[in-house]
Amino acid sequence: MTRSFRIAPSILSADFARLGEEVRAVEAAGADLIHFDVMDNHYVPNLTIGPMVCEAIRPHVKLPIDVHLMVRPVDRLAIDFAKAGASLITFHPEASDHVDRTLQLIRDNGCKAGLVLNPATPLHHLDHVMDRLDLVLLMSVNPGYGGQSFIEATLAKLRSVRARIDAHVAAGGNPIWLEVDGGIKVDNIARVAEAGADTFVAGSAVFGAPDPDRGYRGVMGRLREALASAGLPG
Ligand code: DX5
Ligand code: ZN
Q: pLDDT under 70 in the chain at which residues?
């Protein structure tokens, strides 16, 4: 099956003092989405950026902004991010008391909606909401920090979610992106694609190690070459 691949640089690893310049640079380097990590120091042990920063970078790029909410509660901030220019909003089911309502709320505010599953979060959270999902985000590290190592058990989980999505689409359901987040590098992205992902968050791989000659364009090119080597056209 032909799948199109999307690469979503996470600005968690960008230079926050030059954020406008950084997002313009990854857009010019061929990014498909800007991944925006929101941490609240309650749901995860770190504190990052909120809707005002989303609003500030919005005019700098045409790319969709992919907001990953690691916050509790979810609903109020989801609305604020929709107003601040987000295109996609994902949240962790453990962080919302009413997952179905939160998914509807995100779509009602004009954004694509998704659930994020931590490495130890079971897949049954997807059972009754497939029709409400535009994407599923599988964490391949425990959320909270950039630069962690990819958890290999994610590959089996990806295969299971890919099978669920394919069955859902075969039964006439809406397409659902399968995104993976954490520890994605040039040397593992092909295996992650083979396991079923179509959208790849890459924080430290893009912002942490720009190509000495070609900058972010060089890193993005190597990620795409690795994807092409997986033999899955994208
Ligand atoms: C972790 C964040 C990730 C993170 C990925 O909680 O959700 O998006 O920035 O960073 P890398 O690619 O460095 O693992
Ligand atoms: Zn993220």
A: 1-3, 232-234
- Judge whether 11 lies within some domain: yes
CATH (domain of 56)? 3.20.20.70
Output the pLDDT for position 232: 67
Which residue lies with its CA nearest to atom 12 of ligand 1? 203
Ligand 1-lining residues (CB < 6 angstroms): 10, 12-13, 35, 37, 68, 141, 143-144, 146-148, 181-184, 201-205
Q: Tokens 């990953």 belong to which residue?
A: 68
Q: Mapping DSSP to helix (H, G, I), strand (E, B) and coil, where does residue 119 land?
A: coil
In a domain, 1, yes or no: no
Tell which atom from ligand 1 comes closest to the C-alpha of 204: 13
Strand partners for 69: 38, 91
Position in ligand 1 atom list of the atom nearest CA 148:
14
Domain containing 225: what range?
A: 6-229
In a domain, 37, yes or no: yes
Q: Which residues are catalytic?
A: 37, 181
How many structural domains compose the chain? Answer: 1
Q: Identify each DSSP E strand in the chain by its residue range.
A: 6-9, 34-39, 65-70, 88-91, 112-117, 135-139, 177-181, 199-202
Is the residue at 234 inside a domain? no
Q: Which tens digit of pLDDT belongs to each residue from 126-142?
A: 999 999 999 999 999 99
> Which ligand is closest in space to the CA of residue 147?
1
Q: What predicted TM-score, i.e. pTM, was given to this entire model?
A: 0.97
